[in-house]
Amino acid sequence: MNILFVCTGNTCRSPMAEALLKNKLQEGEVRSAGIFAGKGEPLAENSALVLREVDLHLDHKTSPVDSEVLGWADLVLTMTDRHKQTLALQYPDHQEKFYTLKEYVLIEEEQWTHLKNLYSAFEEKRLSIIHEYQDKVDEHELEQKLFEELEEEIQEIEQLEKELPDLNISDPFGGNLTVYRNTRDELEEYIDRLVKKIHGGE
């Protein structure tokens, strides 16, 4: 399995995740990239320091996300839901590969499928209401009608979303060593879960 980690600039979170997973997973390949990354920049100094504390070294140069690396990847794990949304908008042909790291290891497939189905049904009903009423009522009345007709669906989606964990890895950029250390440890916790999932929950 080819796994790609994605963050913003590819200097902190995604390369730390890459180094941690490479150390724990013998099979497959692991890379990292950034949505707004330059090309060939070094790893952030504090990222390198906190990796060295756990005897890890990554010979890293930043790399921007592009179609080529997304084509290479079997699985794309982002650091935040915003990274995931940005990728889905820019590269819709690959969106079945996109997950946040936490989402991929924490959320049961049935729970995630249920939420996606709710979103899909909500959008279908919303478009149907707009189509039915847009020529019959003014904009304010249409908004009111949408709210009334979709209130139950909105409540169901909100309730399910409340039960989901925070899906973002904290950004250490600009922080001190302690902040970077905390992000490294947070990443390690979820990468341990990732390795377990890859190995079939062993």
UniProtKB/TrEMBL annotation:
Q: Does the keyword Hydrolase apply?
A: yes
Gene this chain is encoded by = ywlE
Cite a single GO MF annotation. protein tyrosine phosphatase activity
Protein name, entry field: Low molecular weight protein-tyrosine-phosphatase YwlE
A Pfam family per the record:
LMWPc
Q: Which residues does the Swiss-Prot or TrEMBL record annotate as the active site?
A: 7 (nucleophile), 13 (nucleophile)
Question: Phosphotyrosine protein phosphatase I domain: from which residue to which, for each copy?
Answer: 1-197
InterPro entries hit by this protein? LMW_PTPase (IPR050438), Ptyr_pPase (IPR023485), Ptyr_pPase_sf (IPR036196), Tyr_phospatase_low_mol_wt (IPR017867)
Keywords attached to this Swiss-Prot or TrEMBL record, sorted alphabetically, are: Coiled coil, Hydrolase, Protein phosphatase
Return the similarity comment.
Answer: Belongs to the low molecular weight phosphotyrosine protein phosphatase family.
Coiled coil located at which positions?
130-197
